[in-house]
From TrEMBL:
Keyword terms: Membrane, Transmembrane, Transmembrane helix
InterPro entries linked: Anthrone_oxy
Record-annotated membrane-spanning stretches: 12-38, 59-80, 86-107
Protein name: DUF1772 domain-containing protein
Top-level taxon: Bacteria
């Protein structure tokens, strides 16, 4: 079992990635389903409002802070080497950095940016909405599983 500052970093890694996994899980399991049930103009407008709210300090602190924390944990694990039980911390860092943070950057944010450029009541927005919900949610499932997996890997690193 690890101790000292590395242990504290790892506990914070469990907490941060777990919180992000929970937020993503909420969207995958009921938020997107609820938004998809609305008429397209209302769904688009609601998601645009959600996307604006998401880039405020409360969520961004947890989301970006967890990415920085995961990077720090990976560096410490690499410096400590395989004899120090680096496999679980490295797995947790990779899962979050690539599957949680990375997928957000390459799959979800571009969809959000495209949606932000549409006026909710237009035919273009309605046409985009169905594909948006399907694609965004599919990638959100990946983010959810990866972030939860990171939390599990960090928890296993503590044993």
């Amino acid at each position: 079992m690890m101790d000292g500052p590395y242990c504290v970093l790892t506990v914070l890694g469990v907490l941060g990635t777990g919180l992000v996994a929970g937020a993503f899980c909420a969207f995958s399991t009921f938020v997107m389903t609820g938004l998809a049930a609305l008429p397209p103009a209302q769904g688009v407008a609601a998601m645009q409002a959600v996307n604006k709210a998401a880039v405020r300090a409360p969520f961004m602190l947890v989301f970006l802070g967890s990415a920085l924390l995961c990077a720090a944990i990976a560096v410490v694990a690499l410096v400590a080497g395989p004899d120090a039980g680096a496999a679980w911390p490295l797995a947790g860092s990779a899962l979050y950095l690539f599957g949680g943070f990375g997928v957000t950057v390459v799959a979800n944010v571009p969809r959000n940016d495209a949606l932000a450029g549409l006026a909710p009541g237009t035919a273009e927005a309605s046409a985009y909405w169905t594909g948006y919900v399907r694609g965004w949610t599919r990638w959100n499932h990946v983010r959810t599983v990866a972030s939860a997996g990171a939390a599990v890997a960090y928890a296993l690193a503590l044993t």
